[in-house]
Amino acid sequence: MLGSTKTSKTTWKVLIMDKVTVKVMSYACKMADITEEGVSLVEDLYKRRQPLPSMDAIYFIQPLKENVIMFLSDMSGRCPLYKKAFVFFSSPISRELLSHIKNDTSVLPRIGALREMNLEYFATDSQGFITDNERTMEELFGDGVESSRKYDACINTMATRIATVFASLRELPYVRYRAAPLDVSTVTTRRDLVPTKLAAGVLNYIDKYANTIPNFPKNPTCELLIVDRSIDQIAPIIHEWTYDAMCHDVLNMDGNKYIHEIPSKSGGAPEKKEVLLEDHDPIWLELRHAHIADASERLHEKMTNFVSKNKAAQISHGSRNGGELSTRELQKMVQALPQYNEQMDKLSLHVEIAGKINRVIKELGLRELGQLEQDLVFGDAGTKEVINFLRTKQDATPENKLRLLMIYAAIYPEKFEGDKGLKLMQLARISPDDMNAVNNMRYLGGPDTKKASSGGFSLKFDVPGKKHAVRKDRKDEEGTWQLSRFYPMIEELIEKLGKGELPKNEYSCMNDPNAYSNGTPQSTSARNTQVQPAHSMRSRRTGTWARPRGSDDGYSSDSMLRHASSDFRKMGQRIFVFIVGGATRSELRVAHKLTNKLKREVILGSSSLDDPPQFITKVKLLTNQELSLDDLQI
């Protein structure tokens, strides 16, 4: 987009964005990337701006009436703010607004480009995106949703933004969705219809691209599955034991920002430095999906390796009493070395973070709580064990007791009927506000909690001799680390989709294969097992997930990355999964894991990416309309 505005003369430009497109841009690239493309100034469309009549401007804006009016006001009349305007819309513009621009004859000659970029999603990592609809839960699943005008607006915004993902990747999906239950004994609510309505909206927008985007595929090139949070109420609350999830769960991080303390070179108080835990950090890439115990071990190995290769460190080590050094001691030793550089700075950062997480796990007794959570999910614990924990662990934090009760409510909703819930609240000593979150789990129950669905795939499993399991153990998984038994439900759904085994009565296809006339229509399973003639019109890019375990210092070689890139191009059709109501880091990890396993790139989309505290706040808001997200703190 930015590169297309370059003329033969290398002149600096101004980039003007609105509140949504500035977020799209900040998720996609850094200020240095923008500057490299010839942008010297970034401005807010709605702030008073200095006239720069000798400079060209790039407008990256949503196609909204107020934005178009603002743009026309900038560029019309005798003294426009800028010399020329290159206008890019984040999603398709209406005919009315386009006519509005064309009718302004003073502006037309000053327009250098007028294009639909179809870029209105927020890339969280190489295989994840969000539509940034933070209020989806209350607008689509909350109390009073039946009459809410916000319901349709929310679905429409999500559908528009999801469609731009397929426009920018030049992909046409088979659109599958979790169907509302067809049961005469239960009333189908607007909550049940969310995936159906969203699927219809997405397909409606994508169908229009066939006429507006050059070389847009005529036949489906990938699969999209749309579900909502009712398929798995436990994943957003349970303690997930991977490095990435633990960082965002137990450390007070602001998004991906972490405040790192580094020793002062002058010998004074430690200096505070803000760091981003993102894809550009190779150690983060290597360890983010590892179990916290595995990540800690690998970090210790890397530190030990560095010390063994460094003579100054060996001398320092030799002056000690012998014996094995702790990771913390190794870290201090390395920081004191003259060769201490950016590479070791990154390693030292992760040693500090892992150490902090392990201390929190110990202080809050998370191992015991984590074991109980997983035992509940797999049917190895029940009411007796929950009550025993609440009685004996009075010092557990209110948030952890709340999370345990929310998991319990998702598995045993009947235990909260009448005054039973009140007794549990008194035993756990949690506030009525927190108890609201437990009671509101019923809004996310989905069809299975109202009435058992007629056969097919269900949230609950009957496990002989067990109490009440909502997951069955996966025999093919290697349970190397304690507490790594839990898996998000989405993992099972994606695997079934990959094999063509998703029950059609529960997961319907909005655009049936029979709708396409290119040759003989194929069944879903046939589509998945044969080499597809229809492929994405964009070339596959290197998947950063494909980086190997890495070298001792956490950096991978270029040749390995080139190999990963070629592997990526050999893969089958992409699988897209969109979760309405917020995705979790464990679900994002599943997208990376199954890409390797299925040899098909799995991309996870959602209305938001939530850590447990954010999710709990949103569940509270399902019945508390007077409060806002900013008012509630856990």
From TrEMBL:
InterPro entries: Sec-1-like_dom1, Sec-1-like_dom3a, Sec1-like, Sec1-like_dom2, Sec1-like_sf. GO terms for biological process: vesicle-mediated transport. Residues 514-533 have a biased composition (Polar residues). Residues 511-558 are annotated as: Disordered. Signal peptide: none annotated. Belongs to the STXBP/unc-18/SEC1 family. This is SNARE-interacting protein KEULE.
